[in-house]
Amino acid sequence: MAGTSPAKTRTGYARMSPEDLCYTPAADLAALIRAKRVSPVEIMRAVLERVERLQPRLNCFITLCADRALTEAKAAEAAVMAGAALAPLHGVPFSAKDLVNTEGVRTTFGSFAFENNVPKQDAPCIARLRAAGAILFGKTTTPEFGHKPFTEAPLFGRTANAWNQTRTSGGSSGGAAVAVAAGLGPLAVASDGGGSTRIPAACNGVVGIKQSLGLVPHGQAPDAFGNNSYFTPTTRTVLDTGLMLDVMAGAHPSDPHSYGHATTGYAQAARAAGDLKGKRIAWFPRLGYPKVAREVLAAGEAALKAFESLGAVIEEQPDVPSTEPIWLVLTQANWNARFRDAADRLGPRFSETLRRQIDGGAPYSAVDLQKAFFQRTEIFNRVQGWFERFDLVMMPTLSRTALPIDHDFFAPITIDNEPADTVRRAWYPFTLPFNLTGHPAITVPAGFGADGLPLALQIVGPFRDDAAILRAAALLEAARPWADKRPAL
Question: CA-to-CA distance for 427 and 430, rounded, in angstroms?
């Protein structure tokens, strides 16, 4: 690791620079804590001090629980010094998106409707991380109820991109991705209902996975059977994503889709062992929209060459129809049922972008909704059919780098300085399908564009084969490292 040589202190711990502590992966931090080479208290203080310094610039947290986090860090340090048995993430800081319930810590959903809401219990994934020794220190920003790919809301304002504060952080897990990219904790719990983990991860140059449906129990979905939203890891390294999944995965009574998954082996899959000899990879340079930036396609070609050097066989595939119409019916019907009353009650304190989408979905009938359910099944069959010929599927995550921070969500975007369609249709057609089908999809960094902002690629695997995409992502990470890159903050 970079930084000055460790110096012994009276407690027997080694001392590292605060920035190095903040950018050290969770896997390494956990090992250093177990070896008594670094203190959980030192780590937590470094993270909290960095948050205090950068929060005015990035605005990626809604709530901090600093006193509680430091108390838990001191208890974690005492356990280490006493020689107690340690859980796998003992003393490692993590944050959670403010859509995820956290016992005793304010959870607003980015809305004035829940401005003072304090849950009485953790979501299952949060409870499991805490049981594994990780320490919650704050709640990251989200657009109101996670409704769009820009992280802004009347409750808190805008969250800026970690690499360029004039650009969007993406969304809806923008706060989570910015925090991880900026060294504000190595682990973040995000969520993904149409790309909400993968979009901001791509914008900010970090790893974001939407795991198979049910692998991590949701626990808060009003429609558990028809759910297409996921609680997910966001990290700087593939191994840290695997560590989080090992902890967060497993059956829970709140989620019928959570039964029957493999619950271990994800960290092992993320260790970049072996090669891809004999594996067939389908490359979809376009998925539901024809225009993709030239530099995005070039980044894809470079990654494909890396996979070919590992023995994989690549085959380019033709475009397929957009899944946006089906996703819109399912999602806007859900939003009408859940948020219409809040929109009417809050008036101007409710997000106008969500109100317009609720209104846009109001005319859908029960027949429209049922037809969308039928079409969701058809999309699953199409995607799963890809894996009769291929082991993995790869595509861009976004059609271009992060948009301007003040871009109108309903306005067209530009790609290679040419006009394109609206944000949802033209910027992220690659993410929506896999929320509908439940297939695992991971976005990984793929270099930088001409504007200095991150580029990203998405790897998709067979249904419930999350280990396959973790292994491929880890091999790409080893071949084309990215975790050493830090934004100039």
Answer: 8
**Helix or strand run (H / E) with residue 77:** helix 66-81
What DSSP element (H or E) covers 294?
helix 294-309
d(C-alpha 413, C-alpha 233), whole Å: 29
Q: Could you tell me if 190 and 233 are in contact, meaning their C-beta atoms sit under 8 angstroms apart?
A: yes
Q: What are the backbone dihedrals phi and psi of residue 466, each rounded to the nearest 5 degrees, phi first?
A: -65, -30
Q: Where are the beta strands (DSSP E) in 319-397?
A: 392-396
Q: Per the CATH hierarchy, to which homologous superfamily does domain 18-479 belong?
A: Amidase signature (AS) domain (3.90.1300.10)
- Alpha helices, DSSP H, located in 93-237: 124-131, 174-181, 198-204
Active site residues: 97, 172, 196
Domain spans in the chain, listed from the N-terminal domain onward: 18-479
Q: Is 118 exposed, middle or buried (0-12, 13-18, 19+ CB in 10 A)?
A: middle
State phi, psi for 217 to the nearest 5 degrees: -60, 140
Nearest to 285 by CA among 393, 211, 210, 206: 393
Per residue of the chain (489 residues), what is the pLDDT tens digit?
Answer: 233 333 344 344 557 889 999 999 999 999 999 999 999 999 999 999 999 999 999 999 999 999 999 999 999 999 999 999 999 999 999 999 999 999 999 999 999 999 999 999 999 999 999 999 999 999 999 999 999 999 999 999 999 999 999 999 999 999 999 999 999 999 999 999 999 999 999 999 999 999 999 999 999 999 999 999 999 999 999 999 999 999 999 999 999 999 999 999 999 999 999 999 999 999 999 999 999 999 999 999 999 999 999 999 999 999 999 999 999 999 999 999 999 999 999 999 999 999 999 999 999 999 999 999 999 999 999 999 999 999 999 999 999 999 999 999 999 999 999 999 999 999 999 999 999 999 999 999 999 999 999 999 999 999 999 999 999 999 999 999 999 999 999
Name residue, tokens 């998405």.
458
Q: How far is CA 175 from CA 60, 133, 140, 146, in A?
A: 4, 23, 5, 11
Q: What is the pTM of this model?
A: 0.96
